[in-house]
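Handoff note, outgoing to incoming analyst
You'll be picking up this chain. Sequence as last confirmed:
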Amino acid sequence: MNRRVLVPLALIGLCSLVPACRPRGHAGVTASTELERVRRAQRERLDALLRRDVAALGPVLDDSLTYVHSNGEMENKAQFLETIRTGRIAYDSIVPTDVRARLLGDGSVAVVGGRAVLRVTAAGQRVAFVVRFTDVYERRGGAWREVAWQSTRLGAGG
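Most recent structure output, in case you need it:
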């Protein structure tokens, strides 16, 4: 490798060892504190979904939200809130497992992933299934807001 490639690679490796280079959130807040705030925002969102509380759900969702359901249907924020408000889909229980969260870049974006057992009522039918999900949050105006959700339904062995 030539020097033009080796020097940037060495700096990237060195930066991973220096605490000042690591994502810290904002105003000196630690990454673990920010991740706890992300987890709290996710719990608030899931609780609001279970209560069908659109007023509480709205502020946790970013206006740019892309929500992809396990059946491949995609909705924006307004469409998703309408789905919840009308009960077109009602989340009866949500049990997340194997959840992992990490901050990206400067610490203003978080990716949360895991599995969840969902029990929903849709089109008058109660169904239960397991999904693997990716949930993306961005810190805006001092609050963590969901910007993307993608879930994939897993087979019976899930």
